[in-house]
Amino acid sequence: MDWVRGREIGHGGFATVHLAAPAKTCPSDRPPLMAVKSCDAALSSSLRHERRVLSELGDCPRIVRCFGDSLTSERSGQELYNVLLEYAAGGSLADSLKSRGKPLSEAEIRRHTRSILESLEFVHSKGFVHCDVKLQNILVFPNGGDEVKIADFGLAKRADERLLKGRKQGGLEWRGTPMYMAPESVNCNEYEPASDVWALGCAVVEMATGRPAWGSRAESNAYALMIRIGVGDEIPEIPEGLSEQGKDFLMKCFAKNPEKRWTARMLLKHPFLAFDDEVVRNCGEVEFADSSPRCHFDFQDWVSMQCSRTSWEAGSLWSSSDMDSDPSFVGEHATSEVWSDSSSAINRIGKLASPEKPNWEGSGGWVAVR
Question: What is the pLDDT of residues 338-352, one digit of tens each?
Fold first, then answer.
């Protein structure tokens, strides 16, 4: 495909990214703008590898599309290898977070995390590992609602394949970004699908706090960070502002043992992502949409209420005021659940009963669940 190079919009350690437009002779179905990633043809092994990986992966709506590659001779006499990619007008998710100056809302985090996981599940199902999941490699497409897609497959590898040469730091070889590296990558030079899941957890923490998962100071001393990641039981701090489901989701991502870490496919079924945004918009209140469990995970937040046989036979349940007035209450009714409602259990159940025959044909009061 013939194309015309535009202004520079980014650069990395080995490549530069420019805007690109298809030549007038190109078919009309080509996008009006693309991003072209270019590097010296003699140093293009990583970029050529990315092109091969994208070709083997094929089309996926959650992965940045590739429109082909080419060699060009510049006026300076330099020969460049170029890969034409889908253009993300919103930049990276890291750029978006920085420009906002504040963390994302939980609804936004859920939406973006679901999209990233869908792309990772696809990549893993094709037998690949991304190896560099981070907000800088998640691109934003503001087409009616910030859609995100995963990009930059220059470090991707086949699962179960011996590690290709990585970034050398002293006597160590690292693949990816230290801030997002998993314990097994630090300790055993192991980069498998579980490593992508750990990195995703770090990305979620960053979306929720606006700061790197291990704190800003960790960037200044990579070796100290490697020790924190690889030694002991420490994991990134779980953001307090997240819901209980969000915290549990992160704990599944941050299992130190990769064999116990949840897979991308499993995480897509976690209740943190099983939230129906349409229900929330229609009902107006998150609490209403969340009031009924959607899968077995949801039952972890329900409180099991136990009552002694005596309290049921007496037809009443104790309130917290009984404990204050009678210190012997705790020992005498240790098997009872303390309820703040002083109405009897029989009366409470009676309020739920109705002599009228229910009409199951109407659907106005039903809520769609998964």
Answer: 344 445 656 666 666
| 196 catalytic residue (yes or no) | no
Q: Please, which pLDDT band fits residue 29 given cuts at 50, 70 and 90?
A: low
Strands 79-86 and 147-150: unpaired
- CA–CA distances in Å: residue 106 to residues 204, 239, 267, 368: 10, 11, 16, 21
Question: Token pair of 222, please?
Answer: 């990579």
CA 181/CA 223 separation, integer angstroms: 12
- Residue 157 is assigned to a ligand binding site: no
* pTM of this structure: 0.71
Residue type, 276: D
- Residue of 40, 95, 132, 324 marked catalytic: 132
* Domains defined along the chain, listed by start: 3-86 (3.30.200.20), 93-283 (1.10.510.10), 303-346 (no CATH)
User: 148: Cβ–Cβ under 8 A, 6 or more apart, which residues?
Assistant: 93, 112, 115, 116, 138, 139, 140, 141
